[in-house]
């Protein structure tokens, strides 16, 4: 059988590798997006086949919650208990496994869920690898609807190139009822200092910077799946 070359097949391959780390009885953070979808489906398949038992999923979006139900994964909402593992996609993966996430709009629930996971495993195709965050993707920043024009003005003082995300003519609304400001990151940027500054900005709920959170990433390319680990 020849190696898969289309992106969907690659995403699925990465997802299957990550789900192999899930053990029976695990509480599992279920990511969001077109790659995480394959992981949810694979967990559902393994449950149906009896290859996994006793899994509880904690979904990071309404869409993932719905998919989990469809494939037979019992779910619970996030509570203070730790999760054994979380599996999710990413929009950009830096060499140290710092991430940009949230182009699918799920960044806040993802961050809240995945910070409680003993292991965060990222799955992606090779197009998500970058040498620095912001190389290809904007940084999504979730902001309150209330006073959003004021928040956008404050954000533009920090990151001048950015715009409010829209769906057609209307601002895009997250599962939490908030808006998203998508900002271009300049080439020279201390992302840790940026994260602190953004989180201290009035009206900001959270950002799509996932720094020091991922334990490993399965990145699928036409010549195979590469396993990347975060260097200490
Ligand atoms: O909000 C969306 C999430 O952060 C996704 O994990 C991210 O956008 C990657 O999605 P996809 O696998 O569809 O490229």
From TrEMBL:
SUPFAM superfamilies, A to Z: D-ribose-5-phosphate isomerase (RpiA), lid domain, NagB/RpiA/CoA transferase-like
CDD domains reported in the protein's UniProt record: RPI_A
Pathway(s) where this gene product acts: Carbohydrate degradation; pentose phosphate pathway; D-ribose 5-phosphate from D-ribulose 5-phosphate (non-oxidative stage): step 1/1
One Pfam family from the record: Rib_5-P_isom_A
Active site: 110
EC number annotated for this UniProt entry: 5.3.1.6
List of residues binding substrate: 32-35, 88-91, 101-104, 128
InterPro entries cross-referenced by the UniProt entry: NagB/RpiA_transferase-like, Ribose-5P_isomerase, Ribose5P_isomerase_typA_subgr, Ribose5P_isomerase_type_A
Reactions this protein catalyses: aldehydo-D-ribose 5-phosphate = D-ribulose 5-phosphate
GO molecular function, one term: isomerase activity
Key words of the record: Isomerase
Subunit structure: Homodimer.
Function per UniProt: Catalyzes the reversible conversion of ribose-5-phosphate to ribulose 5-phosphate.
HAMAP family attached to this UniProt entry: Rib_5P_isom_A (MF_00170)
Similarity-based family: Belongs to the ribose 5-phosphate isomerase family.
Name the UniProt record assigns to this protein: Ribose-5-phosphate isomerase A
Biological source species: Deinococcus xinjiangensis
């Amino acid at each position: 059988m020849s190696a898969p070359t289309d992106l969907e097949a690659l995403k699925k391959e990465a997802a299957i590798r990550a789900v192999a780390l899930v053990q029976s009885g695990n509480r599992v953070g279920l990511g969001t997006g077109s790659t995480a979808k394959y992981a949810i489906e694979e967990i559902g398949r393994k449950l149906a086949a009896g290859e996994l038992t006793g899994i509880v999923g904690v979904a990071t979006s309404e869409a993932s919650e719905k998919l989990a139900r469809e494939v037979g994964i019992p779910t619970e909402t996030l509570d203070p208990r730790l999760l054994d593992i979380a599996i999710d996609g990413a929009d950009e993966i830096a060499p140290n496994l710092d991430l940009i996430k949230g182009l699918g709009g799920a960044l806040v629930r993802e961050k809240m869920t995945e910070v409680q996971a003993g292991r965060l495993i990222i799955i992606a195709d090779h197009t998500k690898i970058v040498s620095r965050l912001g190389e290809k993707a904007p940084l999504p920043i979730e902001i309150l609807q209330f006073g959003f024009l004021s928040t956008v003005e404050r954000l533009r003082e920090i990151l001048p190139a950015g715009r409010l995300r829209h769906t057609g003519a209307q601002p895009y609304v997250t599962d939490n009822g908030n808006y998203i400001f998508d900002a271009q990151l300049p080439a020279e940027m201390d992302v840790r200092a940026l994260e602190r500054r953004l989180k201290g900005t009035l009206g900001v709920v959270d950002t799509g910077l996932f720094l020091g959170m991922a334990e490993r990433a399965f990145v699928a390319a036409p010549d195979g799946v590469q396993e990347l680990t975060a260097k200490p």
